[in-house]
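Figure 2 data, in text form.
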Amino acid sequence: MKKLLGLGIALITPFNKQGKIDFTSLENLVSYVIDGGVKYLVLLGTTGEACTLKLKEKIDIINCVKNVNNNRLPIVLGIGSNNTKKVIYNLNRINLDCIYAILSVCPYYNKPTQKGIYNHFKKISDNTDKNIIIYNVPHRTGCNINIETINKLIKKKNIIGIKEASGNIIQSYNFIKNKNSKKFIILSGDDNLVLPIILGGGDGIISVIGQAFPKEFSKIILLIKKKKINYAYKIYYNIINIIDLIFKEGNPSGIKTLLKLKGLCHEYVRLPLFKSSPNFEKKLFLELKKVHLFN
């Protein structure tokens, strides 16, 4: 699973003013993050507004990224639902030849028990030979995956890791400490916890902010691995205010506004999300002016 160590990017889906996918901006963004040194690409997750995309649009996005990427980086694809049969249906409808792993979120809204969560992912695992990364994000799903459930799921050969976005650093450390397989990877799903999680033994991060600062975030992770902690924190503190700010009016509205300010895409999102306010954009612009970019 060395292909998924370090910095992965939770890519946005750029839209134009009419709400159509802006494929030119998507191509430019993919090239930008690859040139910035990221290790893998994550498509059609929460940040990619997957729940507002039709199946054909998802397939078009996959093909677009596949063409730009040209086999340079592994691709992780978000396929999740609170309907187990729907996940399996989509696994069978989408051509996964170019996909290294699936990122599948814990079932949301219906709030299953740990037994239900286990059987949900077991059923998915039984219906695909693709690698699977479990996505734990309880503030969105309404339920948390515990270590006992994870250790049962690790026994499935194609369940290879977890994107842990509970925001609970102690839980993250318990995942790292108590996992019963060295092959299972722990990825931070929170940009603001990247340093303590990797320092504590985590394997990397699937990042939102990293698509705006790929060189800086790649350097942070490299420095952590080399135990050059003070330098890593110096770069991190340079962008910490922006990391905090981009989530104030929701994700991906904030990151899209930042990418707009950097000339990489428009700020448009699909309802029920709404683009960031002019006041937010002004605050973000002022913070961006303070950032000393890494060379």
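Caption note: Residues 229-245 form the longest helix (17 residues).
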